Amino acid sequence: MKRFVVICLLGLVGILGYTMRDGPRADVSLVGAKAYAMEMRPSMYMVTLTVENAGAPDVILSASSPAAGMVSLVNPRHAGGAVVVPGQAEGILAMDGAHVMMHSTDFAQGSFIPLTLTFKNAGEVTTRLQNAGISTMSHDADEGVTVQPVPSVRLQTVGEPKTAGFALRLEVTDFSFVRLDDSAEDETAHVAGQGHAHLYLNGLKLGRVYETEFSVGQLPAGDHVLEVGLNTNDHRPYLNADGTPVVARLSFTLSN
Length: 256
Known about the structure:
This protein has 256 residues and is mainly beta. It is built from one helix and 17 strands. It folds into two domains: 107 residues, Sandwich (Immunoglobulin-like), CATH 2.60.40; 111 residues, Immunoglobulins (Immunoglobulin-like, Sandwich). The termini are far apart.
């Protein structure tokens, strides 16, 4: 009996060791995965979701799905740059930043298919992706808003940027941060000079900003670009007189 117990315990230790060594990390999860069909090409989908990272910084390497003919991770705001998800934070694959493009001819609205993101450290993480129909929201510059006076924004660090995280400060003119309820359409009407900011790291959307001071989570060593753009209450970008978005960028290099 004693020998049997010892053998069972040794087997359990082996299983746990294998899981800890080769299994995907549990500190990265994918939330709210939606696929939005493109109006002119209904078999092409733009995929959005939130990456919740409870561990160290990680990098999204690729996307795949056995139920799609083509799946590609794209980053139009920072072509060729690593899609870094800060540690102890979250990143958002969104229409106005890094996102996934997918082709499928057999994906009914409301149905689900599997989607896998491969991370540099966490390995493969899979979620359920739902067909959410055609999106009506646009963050393109041709859908932007020009007002007078034109708002401006400046982005700067508070102290020296560090891999452990650091604080940031926004300086704005002719602009007021207003936090409204997205669930009530009449509460998000455009008011000139009001709105919020969208924050991006190397093209990956980190979220909305409603205050002039905030922080960025843990980052890996290397070159990074932070970008912040001003948006209206109804999420359209504010534009300069020449039609370009009102944005501020900050490039920096982190070392270990």
